[in-house]
Amino acid sequence: xxxxxxxKTSALATGGILLAGCVQATENKAIDKPIVPKPQLxxxxxxxxxxxGLDANQGAWKVLSxxxxxxxxxxxxxxxxxxxxxxxxxxxxxLPDRDGIVTLDACIMNHENECGAVGCLxxxxxxxxxxxxxxxxxxxxxxxxxxxxxxxxxxxxxxxxLLTPESKTLWEEWKASEDLKKPEINSENHDTIGMLAMxxxxxxxxxxxxxxWAYKLHGRIGxxxxxxxxxxxxxxxxxxxxxxxxEAVIRIAxxxxxxxxxxxxxxxxxxxEIAVNRIIAKHKDITGLQVGFLAMNNNGEVGAHSVFAGxxxxxxxxxxxxxxxxxxxxxx
Length: 332
Ligand code: ASP
Fold this sequence. Notes:
By secondary structure, this protein is of the alpha+beta class. About 35% of the residues lie in helices and about 25% in strands. It is built from 9 helices and 13 strands. The protein has helices at about 5-25, 55-65, 70-80, 125-135, 145-155, 165-175, 245-250, 255-265, 270-280, and strands at about 45-50, 105-110, 115-120, 140-145, 195-200, 205-210, 230-235, 240-245, 290-295, 300-310, 310-315, 320-325, 325-330. The strands form 2 sheets. It has an 8-stranded mixed β-sheet. The protein is globular, with a radius of gyration of 23 Å. It binds aspartic acid (ASP). Aspartic acid binds near residues 191, 213, 224 and 244.
């Protein structure tokens, strides 16, 4: 065989192999089909983090029980917590950053994977509603800082002072004590509210809103406004949200991880447990590192798990309105 003919033949052969590979890849196309069933026996249903979730769920339930959407339910629900002045970790009354400025983070996600978020937002009472406007009125997902504030004002949100006298006093005491250690994140300081709801149509939405880590550096943004970290929803599978030390949640793309585990057949409880254990495995020192995950699959089954004891969540559905202690890995 001449060298030219050999090259041509082998090129053809290689092409054939490549082509065959192509055909095969198309035939065995990697599929991303959730294996979670969807009878949705539990709908409508709403769950949210911590004891403040009880009041928030009632707001959400008003919407759900009137055949409203899960999106409206989660927005209305967490707005209640954002307005609670004696809550030190969400909305007005939240503890400020190191410089005495209250900065808020929030995000929202609907059943069509549409999402919006704000980070480091100042002087606005309802970051969750600003996040929804980012989702609905802009081509973006996230606005932060001055840009988020300007956008909120442009959309007609009123400017208010978020630093209550009580929070200001606590911040002044903290400054005077020069105690710059990590604030403990536990059930007593009430934490972020993350909420997941499934409406009567079986659609799932989620919301997450917080003033974040008390006395953080100015400009710090945690997991709560980050889609995939503090919150993730995929209507074909379910949703998840997180609370606790945001930096640790971000490191494992926490809520997205929980949803992907459910996509591949884990129950919400198993998915939360695996994500918590991944966080533990990825940190050399978990002293004071509290993280809790809360999840719901598209069957309306729920699960929750945390690194340390003390995490709880509110669950509301027909004839049920209760606070449930999450399972956990460690005692404090
Ligand atoms: N995850 C929130 C943050 O890191 C804090 C919290 O849930 O308490 O900002």
